[in-house]
Prior knowledge:
Distance between the termini: 21 Å
Oligomer: single chain
CATH architecture: Clam
Largest sheet: 12 strands, mixed
Amino acid sequence: MHVSRIPTGVLIVQLTVAVLIAGSIRLSAQDQPSKKAPAAKPGEKKATKTSTRRQRPGDALRESRGKLKGLIPFQAEIVETIVVRGKRFQATGKYMQGQDRKLRLEFQLEVGRTKGSLIQVCDGTTLFTQQKIGLIVLATKRNVPRILKEMKQMAATSGPRPQPGQFEADLGLGGLEALLGSLEQSITFTRRREQSIQGRPFIIIEGTWSASFLQNLTNDDQPIGEELPEYVPDRVRIYIDKTTQFPHRIIYLKKAPGRQVLKPMVSLEFRNVQVNARLADTVFSFKPAPSVRVTDTTDEFLRQMRQAQSTPAATEGGVGPTGGSAATGRPGSR
């Protein structure tokens, strides 16, 4: 397994509490054009073209992602539940997304007697991240325009054309839309159903990792068909509000050992969602406590990015430090 291109696991200690799966991602086979209809026989009238194309499971995700742009700014309470080797953890917080790369993510988590928090804020220019574990506080910042500029310069000289928003996603920006974009490219959705939950209609889609994505996760020595590592989910299920198209819940599922039963591994849920909300600019500002030292990691991020591009894996399409967009268990942070 390529360490830099596989999930780093459920990062409880660092309070990111997510499954991070990095790798160059391409569209799955389900996005290939359909076959042309047979030509009409002599004397037969040519069939009129209709727009009643069969709804595919992946279409619901694309529609949801496109709709999100019109719902910004929005805010929501966020709950993430993680199951690790039979133990259940839950992190709660708030998520706000504005225009022009502005976002704010706050998480609180308590594991045993240890309390922690994660705050990530971007005002469009500077990306701040602060993690607190017990009494230890780590804070960093990155220059967003500088990093995006170099990313674009590197992409222009090597590798295939990046997907829209890939640079922001590689940097940890883009929010929920970037998360949906990475899932759209890395998951082949095969199931679609509708269900009413608490009186509201939902579209529920489910799928597995695409063949091209799995190929990037494994090396040539791994037997085909071998079960994925315990920290890699087997399926993804998304609950989309049929009325607003907002994705209220994303669940990463794992097969029970020796059984075909799927159990939740990571669940990301948005509650009390307020779309087109009026969010003050102060929401996207960050002021650490006077005793907290903020380290500028822009140069280190750029160094890792150049190093990643110089490796064979980076030439497959990724320009970020880990080689591409992340299919994360939560929006906007890394």
